[in-house]
Amino acid sequence: MSDAATARRLKDHSASLETMTRFVLATLALASGVYTYLGVRSLLDGTAAIVFFAAVVYSAAVSVGIYGFWTYLMRFLPEMRDGSSRMALLGIMALGSAMIIAMSSWLNAAALAGSAAVEQHLAETLEDYTADLDQANTNALGALSLLPDIQRAEERFARLADDERSSGALTGTSGSGSVVQLLTQMSAQMRELEANIRATQEEVAQLFQEGQERLAAMRGLVSESGAIAPRSDRFAEEAVALAGVIASLEQTSIAPSVARAAADLSGGFIAPVADGSTADLAGRQDQVMATIRASVDAQSKALSDAAAEILAQPKVAERRYVPLSSAEAVLRYAGDFIPSWAGAISIDLLPGVLVAIMGVVQGAIRRGDEHLADADRVTAADMLRSLELHDALVARRAAVAPPAETPVAAPNEAEPAAAPIPSRQSAGENVTPIPFSERKRQDP
């Protein structure tokens, strides 16, 4: 196919698609305006009438702006022949596309994936609160790991007291003396510390059970169907209640009390005066009580170190649930909703593809026209018009020109008269010729 035929066909197709192009631009602009309305409505506060009116005005402005922007570019960009003008319009196109994304595309994404983004925010917040509850419960129950050591120390002191009382295993003299009294005192302190730890265990279990119930309610709100706004409000109420449970668990930990009790075992050790009846027995009692003191110091250090490890565990940071609107959520979790973002941006920037198509087509048309001769550029209509103009000019010359004088021969001249010169008009055609277009109009 020749360049002339290709250029002619491209021109015909471009002209036939003009209505379709306008329809496509209007449809895309309308779709963007509708989704912009749905997105902007979630950001406005006030009465229902004010929110509706403001959202409609904003979405209408977006639709008109998008339609006008791409219409101007589709008209002017393909006609630019020099590189500087084309690059200038391309830069304007990039700037306008960025502005369209800023004023419309993110709201379209909020309308497409806003509810899902808010649900994801609730789900991630739920995971954070679950981890906080587990950490608080672990910290609160950390002192329970000291129970075996405390029980062994209590049983050892009690057994030594019994052995000393019954057989004098430590001093060699049976009976209830100073050593038995000291061992019984140490056993009672250990038993009291064990009772304190066990008392907190039940309270910790109750608080943890309450926290689990709050988490179950929050999970139900995340997976529940229906509008996301009321679910988010109820989720916030449950989150506040759960934060209170976590704070109570943090305060219930017995580890600080264990650390103080362990320090009192050594620092507050009060040994009774040896009450042996003889100096030898009293000396042996002093030696045994010194040994008991060393054992108490070792037990105190072990408990203190264990309590320090529990206290060194990371504390649960104070957490506050922050509700998000659908537009804010879709921005925060944009990476998880790439398909929705791609669809929202494509609605606004798809006319840019049409602009590129028109630019390529116009470039092909110009390249085809450059190889055409002047005769190839003349259409049948141009030729008919030229004939009409030619006939009109001929008729005007004939009407304006003076009639030609015919010489008359003398009677006595023997020479014959010269034959008349043939002309384009016959002798009977003394009227002005009518142009082709006028003849066509006068025909019945």
Automatic annotation (TrEMBL):
Membrane-spanning intervals of the chain: 20-38, 50-75, 87-107
The keyword Zinc is assigned to this record: no
Biased composition, class Low complexity, residue ranges: 404-424
Coiled-coil segments: 183-210
Domain of life of the source: Bacteria
Residue numbers spanned by region Disordered: 404-444
Keywords: Coiled coil, Membrane, Transmembrane, Transmembrane helix
Protein name in the entry: DUF4407 domain-containing protein
Organism: Aquibium oceanicum
